[in-house]
């Protein structure tokens, strides 16, 4: 039983402590509640939000464009909509991405054209 627990904990630690170089992009619209830790002073962070939120952890050569418009009119008299409207657009363009090993090869004197040709 101890071996199964140890293997499970090791597997969980490997999954949590390793990462990859892929792009992680999260978009949310509406009511949200976020809990986290502020890394500057290690304080608990609680955030209640209403609206659009974009979280992006991207590598090099990525362009993100988030445009939006939100209108609210509390005096509209309609209790169901209260005159609120929301409109937005999210564009993501991901260009060619290379890793550090490729950059090191170019710095070491390898022919950059051959490296790029091999990446295709």
TrEMBL record:
Residues 1-24 form the signal peptide. Residues 69-88 are annotated as: Disordered. Keywords: Signal. Residues 78-88 have a biased composition (Polar residues). The keyword Signal applies. This is Lipoprotein. It comes from Victivallis lenta.
């Amino acid at each position: 039983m101890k071996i199964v627990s140890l293997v499970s904990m090791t597997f969980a630690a490997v999954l949590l402590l390793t990462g990859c170089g892929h792009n992680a992009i999260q978009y949310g619209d509406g009511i949200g509640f976020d809990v986290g830790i502020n890394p500057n002073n290690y304080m608990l962070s609680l955030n209640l939000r209403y609206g659009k939120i974009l979280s992006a952890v991207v590598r090099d050569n990525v362009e993100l464009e988030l445009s939006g418009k939100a209108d609210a009119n509390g005096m509209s008299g309609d209790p169901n909509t209260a005159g609120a409207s929301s409109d937005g657009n999210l564009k993501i363009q991901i260009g060619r991405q290379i890793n550090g090993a490729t950059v090191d090869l170019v710095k070491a004197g390898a022919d950059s054209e051959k490296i790029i040709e091999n990446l295709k």
